[in-house]
Amino acid sequence: MSSILIKNVNVVTACGDEVLENTSIAIKDDKIIAIEDMSKNPSNYDKIIDGNDNFLLPGFIDAHVHIMANGFLNVDYMNDPLSYYFCKGIKNMKVTLEAGVTTARDCGLADVGIKRAAENKIIKSPKFQISVIPLSITGGHFDLYLNSGHDMIVTYPGFPHPVCDGVEGAIAKTREVLRARADFVKVMATGGVVSANDAPEDIQFNVKELKAIVDEAKRMGNRKVVTHCHGLGGIKTSIKAKVHSIEHGTFVDKKSAEKIAEKGIFLVPTFSVIKAQIKQAKNRELPPDKIPKALEVGKVHQENMEMAYNQGVKMVMGTDSGVHEHGKNLAELNYLHKMGMDPLETIRAGTIESAKCLELENEIGSIEKGKIADIVLTNIDPRDSISKLQNPDNILMVMQDGKIVKSNI
């Protein structure tokens, strides 16, 4: 039994706009047991940390990462030994955790071994919900079979291949990823910006196929389905199939945004990856045929996310890191702020609202008595300087499950 007192801190609870100034937080084992001024009787604690009037926030929750990926244009997947692939993944996990992300939803490529290693603290890593591998139609956004004959999907025993077609094929593949211990099912409902075989607007699974996946996932342990959607057609299909969340949402229109809000579907806008691809396009780092589309998507995405937000769509933090650089996750907060959220609302989008998206709000996502002690200490007042949180040097301490996993104090 261990106990920690963090005193002299300003606590951003993520419970509304509440900021508790000059207070203390007591932690026993992995739980928060009190939030009040306890600094006058410090002898009851095994460890006392002086927060030096800095800010304590809930650990952040990134609802869309690819922790094992290092850019989907990277030919290293064909050249590197499998062991090196996993070693790079370990590095990605460490920098993500040290950036302040204590939990993440991996939307493709992390398997159950990665999740177990994180849970058992074998590696420094966020805790994960995993989808194992996204489902893709033949020629779709995660069919990485190239005309050269190479398949860019990293394969090994126990790791499913993503491609499936038709209702029966979709049901079978859903069962396969759930057998591989997926916590949720990720589906590519449209093409992607840098896909080899499709375009962002392309509709992939039809309504019958996608609904079959949703129904099967629900039948097998009440699992949720999330969809990668850029194009409007895939967004409409996802709404009809009653998915749990829509990722990206680039070409959403007002009518669809209204339906998303009405049905309580989460939207994970992933500004970070869109902005990264705009930069790649301007620097001509993308294939020439992908550059115009990346620039178009960047312009349309910003406008439509602002519209969807104003329609009351629930938005949470997700970065799509892995398609771009790991460890810069909290830059997403500044993009949400520029979209229209006030600073404390962005904090909630990256904590308690993301926890709701992952259905973990009773355990994590806010600083409250009885919740797991996943917390971040920063020298930044998020009410004034939300953009500075993206610099990992401004994250002074990260605590996960009541244990300090990063400390620069």
UniProtKB/TrEMBL annotation:
Enzyme Commission (EC) number: 3.5.2.7
Gene3D superfamilies assigned to the protein according to its UniProt record, in alphabetical order: Metal-dependent hydrolases, Urease, subunit C, domain 1
CDD domains reported for this sequence: Met_dep_hydrolase_A
Native organism: Methanobrevibacter filiformis
Keywords tagged on the record: Hydrolase
Domain Amidohydrolase-related: 55-405
Keyword Zinc (UniProt): no
The protein's name: Imidazolonepropionase
